[in-house]
Amino acid sequence: MLKRLIATACATLTLGAAAATHAADLNGAGATFPAPVYAKWAEAYRAQSGIGLNYQAIGSGGGIKQIKAKTVDFGASDKPLKPEDLEAAGLMQFPTVVGGVVPVMNVPGLQAGQLKLTGSLLAQIYLGDIKKWNDPQIAAYNKGVNLPNLPITVVHRSDGSGTSFLFTSYLAMKSGVWQSKVGASDAVQWPTGLGGKGNDGVAAFVKQTLGSIGYVEYAYAKQNHMAYALMQNKDGKFVTPDANNFAAAAGHGDWSKAPGFYLLLLDQPGAASWPITGATFILVYKEQANPAAGASVLKFFDWAYKSGDPAAVALDYVALPLNVKTMVRKAWVSNVKGADGKPVYVSK
Amino acid sequence: MTTLSTDVVVRRPPKGAALDPFFKILCFTAATTLLAALTGIVVTLAVGGWPAFHKFGLNFFTNTNWNPVTEEFGAAGPIVGTLVTAIMALIFALPLAFGVAVFLVEFCPPILRRPIGIAVELLAGIPSIVYGMWGLFVFAPFFAQYIELPLMAAAPPGSIWETLTTGVPNGDNILTASIILAIMILPYMAAVLRELFLTVPVQLRESGYGMGSTTLEVITSITLPYVRRSAVGAVMLGLGRALGETMAVTFIIGNSHDLPKSLFGAGSTIASTIANEFNEATGEMHTASLIALGLVLFMITFAVLALARALLGADKHS
Questions:
Q1: Among A53, A75, A115, B4, which residue's CB has the most CB atoms within a 10 Å radius?
Q2: In which domain, by residue range, is B186 found?
Q3: Contact A190 B68 (CB under 8 A)
Q4: CATH number at A2-99+278-335
Q5: What is the ipTM, given to two decimal places?
Q6: What's the gap in Å between the CA of B90 and the closest CA on chain A?
Q7: For the whole model, what pTM was predicted?
Q8: Would you say the CATH fold of A101-251 matches that of A2-99+278-335?
Q9: Shortest Cα–Cα distance, B244 to chain A (Å)
Q10: What CATH code is carried by the domain that includes residue B209?
């Protein structure tokens, strides 16, 4: 019995060691929002190159912690690091895909796309200042829409999330009161409302509560056929949350003037731009202790830029505009270097 | 002659005796590893949470502001929420667990004893996340429509009833969280109570019946007094589990860091707060405060379990 136990233990250890020595695989950790597309890319890339990707969707905060602890080859975050933080940690970041945050609601008689909202209205609703759906301020933008005399129940994310970061950052841009009273972060002290865990938690609360409003990632709103609101963008137009309008916002983002690719795609100009849009980011070290591993990471994302767009679009993400990809490739050459000062990877 | 005597004195050791010292070391290592892990966890929690305790002091326990943006953390909401939901769960689960145990010991036809026993054990084996999903998608909507709305509508204005039932009628609140918790701790409490009832000597119970007592009288005058202290221990075990339950509660408690204001209001518990925020906590003080919360929960659970141990052990020695 004991002998068999020992034999099994030894066999397990050898297997484990064998897996560990197969070191060509990439290790990454971080944001949950892009995890499905990274998984899809990894699958296709493995079939082509034989190099696998082990991506742990542990959340953006976890991704930043892991790359700082150097336990992974790259970190992933929905919340870009500020240029000074990147500098301090010796990191470089670049965007991969773009997504949008969509206000969804459950109001009797209101179909998807019927309600028009502005950033300031949304802020007042989430502050608890606008309490009813037939509030004159909402009605002013929605002439001819039958708004019920129903209390508004605010639903927000209870877990820290990049979606909340984009949403609260947008509200802070559009409302001075929000900026001073609540602020912008992946978790805030919400003035009112219920907290649902994850996109599915928010969606379930909204579906179960008459008169509720929440916010979810676009893919979630689309796949669940939730009643979304139109938002007013910087040009004053009311736009639909869809892939074209996220792409419009991404295209208007002035990446060239954003050091370290620190750019929130919120409230971008352009007639079609969806106002609550954001990219998700990858973090790598500027000085690569192991240039081969560093090159392998960049090669993977270079491949994804070239051939990964259809997979991203199929999963309701928006691909980066071509000029942004070119900029990122240039940034790799000038930023990510080995100990010898040579770029670890040059895109062909 | 001499060869013969040595043959008599030297006895062959039993087969496999050489392995015994190794076995002993193996067991000793297992036991000490456990202790080391426990100590390690406490030390890690204390060190990780120290910045929060140091900065906020006693305010950490009394302040209700939990604001990651300004990095001001007061845990009164989650701490009170934890205690309230666990105690309410206990109040709901105790009579049921008692009923299940009494039925199994006193009334149950032998043919049903096994199926019911297995059902109770199965209930204990369902993962927490399943209770959470069931609570969120099935129980909460049902509760909102058939219990919450009628109760709210029937509340006389200005009464305590009305205060207790204010909230959003969607089934995600402190009361539903407590009910789900009650379902989760029920099997543990029922199983322990049943075992306890079986420890009552048959002679005692049979003599009760022989004196002409009814079953109710045997339960109240013989069984309960006999297991009284241990039963309190069983209850405490249930409480200990309710205190630390995480995912099921996170899904349906509504996750608001304010102090719970009514049965139908949103609240949070220590475990749900940690589950919600730890992944994405980047600020140092935020992480420290969450770890400090973990230590507080550890202390509460430890106190409850220690009490349970003391009470459970008391009967065996007396």
A1: A75
A2: 78-272+302-317
A3: no
A4: 3.40.190.10
A5: 0.77
A6: 25
A7: 0.82
A8: yes
A9: 18
A10: 1.10.3720.10
Tell me the nearest-neighbour CA distance from A343 into chain B, angstroms: 30
Number of domains in chain B: 1
Read off the DSSP letter of residue A276: B
**B280/A193 CB distance under 8 A:** no
Radius of gyration for chain A, computed over Cα atoms and rounded to the nearest angstrom = 22
A61·B280 Cβ contact <8 A = yes
B234 contacts B144 by C-beta, under 8 angstroms: no
* Residue B2 falls inside a structural domain: no
Does residue B27 form part of some domain?
A: no
Out of B19, B168, B276, name the one closest to residue A158 (CB).
B276
For residue A187, give the nearest of B140, B170, B280 by CB distance.
B280
A153, A183, A195 ranked by CB distance to B256: nearest: A195
| Residue B36, number of CB atoms within 10 A of its CB | 11
Of B65, B168, B257, the CB nearest to A209: B168
Cα atoms in the Cβ-side hemisphere of radius 13 Å centred on A190: 29
Is residue B261 packed enough to be buried (19+ CB in 10 Å), middle (13-18) or exposed (0-12)? middle
CB atoms B19 and A2 under 8 Å? yes
| Residue B296 resides in a domain | no
Q: CATH says A101-251 is which class?
A: alpha beta
Q: How many whole angstroms separate alpha carbon A90 and alpha carbon B25? A: 48
Is residue B162 situated within a structural domain?
A: yes
> What is the number of residues in chain A?
348
| DSSP classification of residue B103 | I
Residues of B with Cβ-Cβ distance to A208 under 8 angstroms: 140-141, 144, 170-172
Q: Tens-of-pLDDT digits for all 318 residues of chain B? A: 445 555 556 667 777 778 888 999 999 999 999 999 999 999 999 999 999 999 999 999 999 999 988 899 999 999 999 999 999 999 999 999 999 999 988 888 889 888 888 888 888 888 888 998 999 999 999 998 898 888 888 888 888 888 888 888 888 899 999 999 999 999 889 988 988 898 999 898 889 989 999 988 998 899 988 888 888 888 888 898 899 888 899 999 988 888 888 889 899 999 999 998 887 787 889 999 999 999 999 999 999 888 888 877 665 544
Sketch the domain layout of chain A as residue ranges. Answer: 2-99+278-335, 101-251
Place of tokens 């405490």: B236
Q: What residues in B contact A197, CB-CB < 8 Å?
A: 250-251, 255, 275-276
The total of other beta-carbon atoms located within 10 Å of residue B273's CB is 27
**Cβ pair B170:A61 closer than 8 A:** no
The minimal CB distance from B254 to the residues A182, A187, A195 is found for A195
